[in-house]
Amino acid sequence: MTQRDFAFIQTAPGRVFIGWGPFEQLPFRRPGRPAFFIADFFLDDPHPWRHPATWEETTFDDLASRFEDRDAPRVVWDPPPLDDFRALFESARAAMARGDFQKIVPVIFESGRFAERGDYWHWFFTRLGELPHGLRAYGYSYGTHGLAGATPELLFEGFARGYRTMALAGTRPVAQAAELLNDPKELREHRFVVDDIVRRLSPFGNIEVGPLGTLRMPKIAHLITPIFFSESGGSERMSFAEMIRRLHPTAALGVSPRNEAGERWLREADHGVKRRTFGAPFGLEREDHSALALVAIRNLQWDGERVRVGSGAGLIAESRVERELEELREKREQVKALFGVTAHAEAFA
After folding, report:
1. 234: domain range?
2. How many domains does the chain contain in total?
């Protein structure tokens, strides 16, 4: 097929909603039409709503069949900027010692280039159709720029009596997943995220915090707590954009407690990183106002032949730099394996 601009998000196991361009970009959603909410991490984009010209819900296999079949993309990776992260780590530790905040989440990117330029969407859609439980696909293609992701983190999803969200923080290799439930550092980091979400939503309705558990994926595992939110009786339903403003960024990707010092630190750290959409909300609101918003992590981003994969680490006073670097590496390697852009494409294990 001829290359067109598009955006997509997985709505259910095996199902994907895709909107085809050209897109109308606006600061609001037009009534009666579905629109994607695709923002930068700091929500600085004044026109985050992208209205497709046409749309459909289908399968990943169907989408893959509409693109030319190609082999897995080969990527030549540059060394990751480990010294840059060490500098961020020391800066964050100094800020925590001053009492500026208790937790912060810096990110780094590993960059490279496609060995051969081309359209790899057949390959990406095929891989996304094989995702293991716990990951949800999303992405877009705009001209030479693209993003393909498979995130474990839900920002929120609307259902009949309210919304469901989650706290997702604390990471281990999947073989050591059981350790998460007994690690004081990981449990404390996770608790910051739970408390942050409850604090942000409780003034507007009822909160139900589910049991703490582990989310196990092919390579790594996370601590996870499901959280349910229902608005107070008689109150007007909170808009999609208001839910975004209330929740994003949770302490899983931002700062705890939320304050000006933490916001300033994140923005200053971003000068040398440019996370753009990494960790930002990526969502869809449909004609019937059904709402789905993901956290845009675990993705590949590319522009022309340049490609990169990012990862973030939650830092608290107990954090140790070498352990955080290993966690960052494990997250990036999971993404590379997921999309088959390692030296040798890995199957899901």
Report:
1. 6-74+81-339
2. 1
